[in-house]
Amino acid sequence: MPTPKITRSWTDAEGNSISYEKEISGEAIHQLNKTVPAGTTDMALVCAIDVSQLQGLLLAADGALTIELNNPGGSSAAADQTLELTANQAILWADGDAEACPIDQDVAILYVTNAGDSDVELKVRWIEDADL
Asked: What was the pLDDT predicted at 76?
């Protein structure tokens, strides 16, 4: 199986590019693809992520979504953490990045809301290292 990679690049106004590519290794590679219908509130998606073993993470959608971790915001308990996805703008992280991991706790369920008028395709990828 090919090793997953994260590629980031920057192209300036003159067309000069700088690219960064990082291979991500881990024992377990997971993926979740889901169509979130327009007008959906708190669609529950089982998505078990052990943040202590996390090596890489991608959350991407072709439309705006709100993702709440572990508890839906409309419940009696507030969401543990809320992430906002913008259309075609991924949340992308790999172990060793300068930025902290965008999720700060273990995840059992993602509660996804699509307040828009069109269905949205959600893609989640994560790599864990069970040896940590």
From this structure: 54
